[in-house]
Amino acid sequence: MNKETSWETSNQSNQGEFILLGVADRPRLEMLLFALVLACYLMTLLGNTTIIVTSRLDPGLHTPMYFFLSNLSFLDLCFTTSLGPHVLVNFSRKSKAIPYGACVAEMYISLALGCTECILLAAMAYDRYAAICHPLRYTLIMSQSLCFMMTAVSWVSGFSLSLVYTVMILRLPFCGRNHLDHFFCELPAILKLACVDTSLNEALMLSGSVVFLLAPVSLITVSYGYIAAAVLRIHSAEARKRAFNTCSSHLMVVWLFYGTAIFNYIQPLSISSSDQRKMISLFYTFVTPMLNPLIYTLRNKEVHKALHRLIKKK
Questions:
Q1: Which of 115, 166, 203, 249 has a CA-to-CA distance to 129 between 20 and 30 Å?
Q2: What is the spatial distance between Cα 216 and Cα 212, in angstroms, rounded to a whole number?
Q3: Triad 38, 44, 47: Cα angle to 5°
Q4: Using CB atoms within 10 A of its CB, is residue 47 exposed (0-12), middle (13-18) or buried (19+)?
Q5: Comparing C-alpha atoms, which of 128, 204, 124, 213 is closest to residue 165?
Q6: Residue-wise pLDDT tens digits, 297-313
């Protein structure tokens, strides 16, 4: 394919649309998924909004840990909202077309927010490491400026990597292929539609996954090794239990999010089935953001007390 033909086919794609196949051939499953996604989305809105409001209004929660937790909740709200309404609309209508430009924009925003969460979770692990392994110097280490800087780095790096991926996608011709075997516009699914060799794109996706998925998981694992050793040295059983509860909550969130994302982005596109990728994408897009506030609040007495104080004030 010469450059002129490649440009023409790419230009036609820009003016066209994608058809999101999802599970349109299984209407009963589609209705079941509609109900599940709707329930997860509503619970995500309620749970994460509660954490943000509580952390802002209660002075006792104005600490680095709850600053990061509020950012995570806001990020989860943005992440699910970037995809949730569109997925729900598609489940409830026969026409599942999305304009090419809207599809690329959806991919850019959701991927940017997902990458941001990868770095933010690593920052939260460092916060727990500083709190438990260096308690006397914790406030000095986790200064307000450092917390803001770590959060800013998370957001800037996430949106920057997503921009690189999006530019690479815009350069691909699709030769009239527009049936996207997914519920929404996700990078691996769009790459499968390209009618040229995408090995460079896949190599870029793999290298980005190593930096944004495997590297943070490795750092988190090392930091929790130090944390576990420090917790075992604590003499007070109550303090040891409180530290364990806080850290185990974070680890649950980490493994739910990273485990499913690694499965989708580390594997070559030809290995796993489309159905597997689609269902796993639904899990880390809707289920994990719903579970985050539940995991952090159900096992956290400080949040319980803060909620009780706010209710009494009301």
A1: 115
A2: 6
A3: 135
A4: buried
A5: 204
A6: 766 667 767 777 777 77
In the numeric block, which tokens belong to residue 204? 């870029």
Query: Would the pLDDT of 236 be above 80?
Result: no
Q: Supply the DSSP string of 153-204, one letter for each residue.
A: HHHHHHHHHHHHHHHHHHT---TT--EE-SSS--HHHHHTT-SS--HHHHHH
Name the pairing type of β-strands 17-20 and 97-99. antiparallel
Half-sphere exposure (Cβ direction) of 108: Cα atoms closer than 13 Å:
15
Cα–Cα dist 184/96, whole Å? 10
DSSP state of 59: G
pLDDT in tens, 11-50: 444 448 889 988 878 888 989 999 999 999 999 999 899 8
How many whole angstroms separate alpha carbon 278 and alpha carbon 276? 5
Mean pLDDT of 172-189: 87
Residue 301 tokens, joined: 């007495």
Q: State both tokens at 199.
A: 């090995």
Q: What is the pTM of this model?
A: 0.86
Contact assessment for residue 55 and residue 216, using Cβ atoms and an 8 Å cutoff: no
Query: 209-232: per-residue pLDDT in tens?
Result: 888 988 998 998 898 888 888 888
Record the tokens describing residue 89, joined without a space. 């609309």
Q: What angle do CA 190, 103, 112 make, to 5 degrees?
A: 85
